[in-house]
Design brief:
Shape: elongated
Largest sheet: none
Number of strands: 0
Radius of gyration: 21 Å
Distance between the termini: 30 Å
Structural class: mainly alpha
Helix content: over 70%
Strand content: under 5%
Order of helices and strands: HHHHHH
């Protein structure tokens, strides 16, 4: 192998890592926002009490609740896609920023009361997200065919 071929191969690998990084961050944003707004719309559209089990089915046809369900379907699909190429130990902590945004949406949009203890927990989540997102590249090499493990 020549030096030129090695340099070209390194350049291609660098471009692929950069593409994967962008793809990962875009998908993280979709996962987080679809989760936050999907859950917010479910909460906003749900009545305080539902007398029977069939009433839960009927409430699915309210426009706000239906939109929330659609966003949560988008959340599940985008999370599955993200997990297909990025490490579980990276995806779960980084997408945990959604918990922070849900708390803020609950406070600002639904006027929920959030205690100092909950805000402290939210701050810890934010610290954890920052630590994980600044870590190493979010991709583990897959085991070779025939080796133990999920491939």
């Amino acid at each position: 192998m020549t030096v030129t071929a090695t340099v070209e191969e390194a350049g291609r690998a660098h471009k692929e890592r950069a593409r994967l990084r962008w793809k990962t961050w875009i998908c993280v944003v979709v996962v987080v926002l679809s989760n936050v707004f999907g859950n917010f719309l479910l909460k906003w559209g749900m009545p305080r009490e539902l007398p029977g089990a069939l009433d839960y089915v009927a409430v699915l046809f309210r426009p706000v609740v239906a939109l929330g369900v659609l966003l949560l379907i988008l959340w599940l699909g985008s999370r599955m896609a993200l997990l297909s190429w990025a490490d579980l130990s990276y995806v779960l902590p980084v997408t945990a920023i959604g918990y922070v945004l849900v708390a803020i949406a609950g406070r600002v949009l639904l006027h929920e009361q959030i205690t100092a203890q909950r805000w402290a927990g939210i701050a810890l989540i934010m610290l954890g997200v920052a630590l994980v997102s600044l870590g190493t590249a979010p991709q583990t090499a897959r085991p070779k065919t025939g080796q133990a493990g999920v491939g």
